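Re: the multi-chain job from yesterday

Posting the exact lines I submitted so nobody has to dig through the queue logs.
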Amino acid sequence: MGGPLVIPVRDMLHEIIRRYNEAVYDTDRPRAMKVIDEAVAAGVTPEEVVFSVVIPGLEGMIDSISKKFTHNLAQHFMAAQIAAAVTDAMVARFAVPPASEGRVVIGNAHGDIHSLGKRIVIGCLRALMIDVVDLGVNVAPEDFVDAAVKQEAGVIAISSLMVHTARGPKGPVGVRQLLRAMDLEGRIKIVVGGAAYRFNENLYTIVEADAWAPDGISAGRVILDLLRERKP
Ligand code: B12
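And the result, C-alpha cells for all chains:
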C-alpha cells in the first residue's frame, strides 16, 4: 500500500519555521543552518527561506528576546548574526539575484567605541537585503560623508551610545553640516540610533537626523523608507 509519505512543502514550512526559531532562540547556529539545509533539500526555495522563515523569524525573535531577556545581549546578537548568515547563503542561490534595496554606510560616532549594537543592526540590515558598509568605531563626520559619496550610499547610519557623542559637534550635527555645505541633503539621509536616543526619543531631531530607530529590525524598516524617499 502507498509509496513514501510526501508532505506538501506548504505544510512543511510551518514545521521548519518552528524548528528554525527554536534553534535561533537557543543561539545554536549549526542547528539553524541544518534546519535550513534540510528544508532546501526537501524542496523549499531559497526565496521562501529568506522571506517566509528568516525575516519573520528575526522580527518575532528580537521582539520576544527584548521583552523576555532585556539584558541578554548574546541572544540578541546571535539572532541577528544567524539571520544574516542564512540570508547570505540563500541569496547566493536565488533563481533571480535580488535587487539590493540600496546602500548604507554605518559607524559609531566620533569618540564612541560601543560597537555591539551597531553589529546587531548590520546583521538585521543584511538580512533585509540592504548593502552595508561598516566604517567601524570612532568615525569622524568627514569620513562618514566621504565614504557615503564614494560608495554611493543613500543613508548614513550613526550609532551613539553616549549623550556627548550624539549631541557633540563631531556627531550627526557635523555630518548634517557637511551634507548641507555639499548640497547632498536630498540624496543622502541620516539615521541615528543607540542608547543615547533611547534615553530621549526627541534627541534625533535635536541632532538634525532624518530618523532614528530603537533596535535592529526597526532600523531596517526606517532605512528602507529613507532609501525609497531620497532623491536619486
Ligand atoms: C558594553 C558597554 C561598554 C563597553 C563597550 C564594548 C563594545 N565593544 O561595544 C565598554 C566597556 C568598552 C564601554 C566603555 C565606556 N562606556 Co559604556 N556601556 C556599555 C553598556 C553597558 C552596554 C552597551 C551595549 O552594548 N548595549 C547593547 C546593545 C545591543 O544595545 P545598543 O548599543 O543600544 O544597540 C541597539 C539599539 O540602540 C539600536 N542601535 C544601536 N546603534 C544604532 C545605530 C542606528 C543607526 C540605529 C538606527 C539603531 C541603532 O539597535 C541596537 C540593537 O537592538 C552601556 C549601558 C546601556 N544602557 O547602553 C554603557 C554606556 C553606554 N557606557 C557609558 C559610558 C559612560 C562609558 C565610558 C565613558 C566609561 C568610562 N568611564 O570609561 C566608556 C566610553 C568608551 C567610548 N569612548 O566609547 C554610559 C554612557 C552615559 C551617557 N549618558 O552618555 C552608559 C549608558 C552606561 C551608564 N549608564 O552610565 N561601555
